Amino acid sequence: MSKFTLSATITLALGTMFIAGCATKNYVKKSITPVDQKVDQVDQASQKRDSSQVADINKTNQALDDTDKKLSATDEIAKTADGTAKGAMAKGNQNSKEINDLRGVIANIDDYKPAGDATVVHFAVNKYILTKDEKAKLDAMATQLGSQQRYFITVEGFTDQTGTAAINDQLSRSRADAVISYLVGSHDVPVYRIHMVGLGSQKLVDEGKGRKAREASRRVEVTLFTAKPLTMSAAGGN
Questions:
Q1: What is d(CA 54, CA 102) in angstroms, rounded to the nearest whole number?
Q2: Which residues does 117 contact at the CB level (< 8 Å), separation at least 6?
Q3: What is the topology classification, in CATH, of domain 113-226?
């Protein structure tokens, strides 16, 4: 074999190998590229699915948190309602007792007599504020109530003759209310045992128009009425 022939053979072999190598690379590239694209698609789909699952989990956790809050709120409402119901029941029982006591007073009103003279407290012009000295009078009267079983109190408010009838009527009621508020707030006198009326200038202590006469009429009269304790037979017992 001549050198030319050998050289041509080697060149042809190398060319064939180069072409074959290029063809192999192209084949591999064409084969791998779709696989890479598929892998990318799968990875993207997986990421979307994971994100969706994470979002669903977050939503579920939020819903659970909201449910827990609602259950806690419902439990608090239930506790409050239970406490309110018990309070209302206790208050209802107390009211029933007070109503029965009041019915007893009304049914036996003729049994009640004034327990001494009325306690009289006075007020400044156009005022319905109790002074320290007037409160002391009410304190002394209230000490009598602890030993009483059957009693009620009348509170009558008055004014002097100055001013209009409408103003005097309102002022007399405000003075009576001030006395009642003090007796109830400071001495726990049951409201149902108190009977109030505002009489304006209808019952003047002194018909005169002088300062002393007007001072005497600006007042509230508090009268204690008592009755003898009921015996077992009078109360309907055996």
A1: 70
A2: none
A3: 60s Ribosomal Protein L30; Chain: A; (3.30.1330)
pLDDT in tens, 113-129: 999 999 999 999 999 99
**Higher local confidence (pLDDT), 65 or 138:** 138
The position carrying tokens 């989990």 is 57
Give which of 230, 228, 205 is closest to 215, Cα–Cα.
Answer: 205
What is the amino acid identity at position 112?
A: Y
pTM: 0.54
Query: Do 224 and 144 meet the contact criterion of CB atoms below 8 Å apart?
Result: yes
Task: Name the strand (E) or helix (H) holding 66.
Answer: helix 3-107
Contact yes or no for 183/134 (Cβ under 8 A): no
Sequence-distant contacts of 168-176: CB under 8 A, at least 24 apart:
168/200, 168/201, 169/198, 169/199, 169/200, 170/198, 171/126, 171/128, 171/198, 171/200, 172/198, 172/199, 172/200, 172/201, 173/198, 174/128, 174/198, 175/123, 175/128, 175/218, 175/219, 175/220, 176/220
DSSP 228: P
Tokens read off for 23: 């063809």
Identity of the residue numbered 28: V
What's the average model confidence in pLDDT over 90-101? 56
Q: Is 117 helix (H, G, I), strand (E, B) or coil?
A: coil
Round to whole Å and give the CA distance between 61 and 70. 14
